[in-house]
């Protein structure tokens, strides 16, 4: 059966059923429901930080994009009234696109929505978590929010959750305006929240990281570097345009010095933003499959075991790097 919530107001010792909807009281999804969620996202769950609103996907804008305290991305779709069965296909379509987004794209969305870097924002929202340990967007959660839910959709949600361990849920809100003018909002869920979170966390996996350099022959190394530096992703372009050129000018650059170089050369608006960009580059250097980058770029861990510093290009590859950058810039 579809979930339905009814509310009674006790007046003079008697129960008086309260029937009211957003539309009946002049409330609208975009102007009201979205604003309520923005002002207090705990209505979605206390483990979700919203990083974007009306985020464009290949299939249109999704209402809210969030990240939970385990790094899972949460696709949130709102309906002012009843959640129809068709909304399931809609959020699955969104999720199929969002699943391909890297941390840089998520960071740009977060910066635009919160005016903070993704790392700073998540650190603020989840102070008990080691943000560096989160594996961002390895799992996607689907969260539907409305004021009722069609029975077929409720059934499909339970089936997907039970049989396929999909992190999916529906939040059913109850909006009440009493005769005295008080407005109340309550919620219930199709799947118990702790069950839904557990299913998402079970599917979580960690990206393989390494500090071991590659051992490629020079021609294969050249080919791998050209292929990587030609990719249309932000970090590889920053490595090509700013990171490697800076290292060619110096024998070694510390993390602080590299941040200053990024800001001075226009790669970042300020050193704080440069630090975020450098964290993304460090993440790229640590991916196990990017061992050809580590064969060329040397780094150390002088301050913290998780923070790369003291960057340099190994002497035997400086001419190779110059050659590749000249070729790509042509």
Automatic annotation (TrEMBL):
Name used for this protein in its record: Endonuclease NucS
Domain of life: Bacteria
Organism for this UniProt entry: Chryseobacterium suipulveris
Entry annotated with the keyword Ion transport: no
Record keywords, A-Z: Endonuclease, Hydrolase, Nuclease
Occurrences of domain Endonuclease NucS C-terminal (ranges): 31-94
MF annotations from Gene Ontology: endonuclease activity
């Amino acid at each position: 059966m579809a979930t339905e919530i009814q509310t009674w107001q006790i007046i003079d010792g008697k129960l008086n059923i309260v029937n009211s909807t957003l539309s009946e009281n002049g409330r609208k999804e975009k102007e009201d429901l979205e604003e309520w969620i923005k002002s207090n996202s705990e209505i979605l769950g206390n483990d979700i930080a919203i990083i974007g609103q009306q985020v464009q996907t290949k299939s249109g804008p999704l209402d809210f994009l969030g990240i939970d305290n385990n790094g899972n991305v949460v696709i949130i779709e709102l309906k002012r009234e009843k959640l129809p069965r068709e909304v399931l296909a809609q959020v699955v379509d969104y999720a199929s696109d969002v699943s391909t987004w890297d941390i840089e794209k998520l960071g740009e969305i977060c910066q635009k929505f919160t005016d903070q870097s993704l790392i700073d924002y998540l650190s603020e929202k989840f102070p008990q978590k080691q943000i560096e340990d989160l594996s961002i967007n390895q799992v996607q959660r689907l969260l539907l929010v409305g004021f009722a839910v069609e029975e077929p959709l409720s059934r499909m949600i339970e089936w997907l959750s039970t049989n396929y361990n999909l992190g999916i849920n529906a939040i059913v809100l109850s909006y009440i305006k009493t005769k005295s003018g008080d407005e109340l909002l309550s919620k219930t869920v199709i799947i118990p929240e702790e069950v839904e979170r557990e299913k998402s966390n079970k599917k979580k996996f960690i990206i393989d990281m390494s500090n071991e350099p590659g051992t490629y022959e020079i021609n294969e190394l050249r080919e791998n570097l050209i292929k990587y530096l030609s990719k249309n992703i932000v970090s590889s372009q920053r490595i090509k345009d700013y990171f490697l050129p800076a290292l060619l000018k110096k024998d070694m650059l510390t993390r602080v010095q590299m941040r200053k170089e990024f800001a001075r050369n226009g790669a970042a608006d300020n050193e704080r933003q440069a630090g975020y960009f450098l964290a993304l580059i460090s993440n790229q250097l640590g991916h196990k499959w990017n061992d050809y980058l580590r064969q060329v770029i040397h780094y150390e861990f002088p301050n913290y075991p998780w923070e790369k510093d003291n960057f340099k290009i190994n002497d035997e590859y400086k001419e190779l790097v110059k050659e590749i950058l000249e070729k790509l810039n042509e």
